[in-house]
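Bumping with the actual sequence this time:
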Amino acid sequence: MKTLPDILTEKFSAAFEKAGYAADYGKCVVSNRPDLCEFQCNGSMAAAKAYKKAPIAIANEVVAALGDDGTLGKVEAVSPGFINIILSEKTLNSYLNEMAMSEKNGYEPKNVGKTAVIDYGGANVAKPLHVGHLRPAIIGESVKRILSFDGYKTIGDAHLGDWGTPIGLIFTEMQVRNPSLVYFDENYKGEYPEECPVTLKELEEIYPFASAKSKEDEEYRAKARQAVFELQNGRRGYRALWEKIMDISKQDLKKNYGSLNVSFELWYGESDADPYIMPMIEDMKKQGIARISEGALVVDVKEDSDNKEMPPCMLLKSDGAVGYDSTDLATIVQRMKDFSPNKIIYVVDKRQGLHFEQVFRTVRKAGIVGDDTELIFLGNGTMNGKDGKPFKTRDGGVLRLEALVKDVRDHVAEKMADRELSDEEKADISKKVGLAALKYGDLSNAATKDYIFDIDKFTSFEGNTGPYILYTMVRIKSILEKYSGVAGTDVKTIIEQASNGELKLSDIEGNDSEKKLKLQIAMFADSIMQASSELAPHKVCAYLFELSNFFNSFYHENKIVTEENEDRRKGFIALICLTLRLLEQGIDLLGIEAPEKM
């Protein structure tokens, strides 16, 4: 299904041709002056230069060439050469009726058959998720959903930090505390116990203790590095212990990501890329692009056009150890081999920009990735406290993500305390509204920008917030419940009738609030197209906020259920059913769920 701007562009392109000008000048866009018109065509301004003619003269000729087929309610050329367009009620209603009956609300996926890998996890095993993991998780999940809606086969990868220094530190401290564990006995040949020798709670205490100790004790730090080396080189006991720790860590990570309505198709870690590292390095040596620099093996990635320093990408450290550069390079090797993706997107902290620029240039230089695959760094800003600094606990520590989710949920629960609802309903509402407040508060900001976390603002039922969007949806459901009593049928049937064309919008001309709501509905496809092409969930948020605003204005200015004209009343119901569908689709793209009541 074509968008309204595309439909108008075809019509005006034909008019330009008929008037003797190139069809390319017929492009139509949403008006930037909604007080004057709904759409506009500015091609006459550009055509004037090419044809050496006054733009207003060209605009008048094009308007005359349009003819009157009922598509346009009003069209006029205005000085110095703009063409202002207002759609007819019939055209707009026909378009919305077609949207209501289409599978994706009038949106035609642009990327069917393509594959996108989205890396948006990055959690370290044996460590709890903290607020720093929030933005990559929910931005990445939304980007994945938007691309999937646009036709991509999407593969979300948690890309766990399971193979580096943290594990070495944990092993070292566990051995100090319990040296008799069979995992540390190199001569042990038997089966290892089924139970993990340490609990998740114990791990959460062990790692920060070991990390702090390693900063003061060089011998201890060296033991941790050696443990990582032996783990990566297949020491049997270390591998067995690592697998036990991985199992309990993944269970906890899945639970916590699940509480955010975030999921992954792959739960790969850095370890999964390990088999690809040495063959990749050998290939780069053969190509002659790897060289020794101060004992380390590197690839030069600096280009003549660089204005800033661009260090080489390090394949091997001077001691022969593998670092993050090689792990991320090998991960791309693995992804290209397994999926041949059209896009690989990294949703990570924007401060890692230099690292990923080095990695991207290296895989291009080595021929690992061709020109037909996009490598995209979607660096996210930080969530800050009211002091403008990265969000912390009251005592200055790093806040656990689980605690943040609970704080927001409890804040919503306090607001719901006086509602006449069952405890079960209140719990469900607090959970869904709290998550909507947290996620929408984040996603409504451009991914690259920092923002202030304001729990009072985010949980407000007014303004540009998640609860406001959900409240609008609940209001529509309430109206449909009232109408079901009048119509003598259930809400589900009413919604089905609106989707199969039994309920249609009325061609009776309405007031300004009705027209504005219809026009906002019609812009759904354009908004999704932008969100997909720009990897911008905040575009979806902006659309939903405007849609909610226009609906609420419409609601306050029109009698819906009590409208006396039956045709007009049914048209209202068809209109709000479509509004609800778009809101439901939009929040799903954000990874948000709506309660039935609020």
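The tokens above came from a reply further down the thread. The domain at 4-87 is CATH 3.30.1360.70 (Gyrase A; domain 2).
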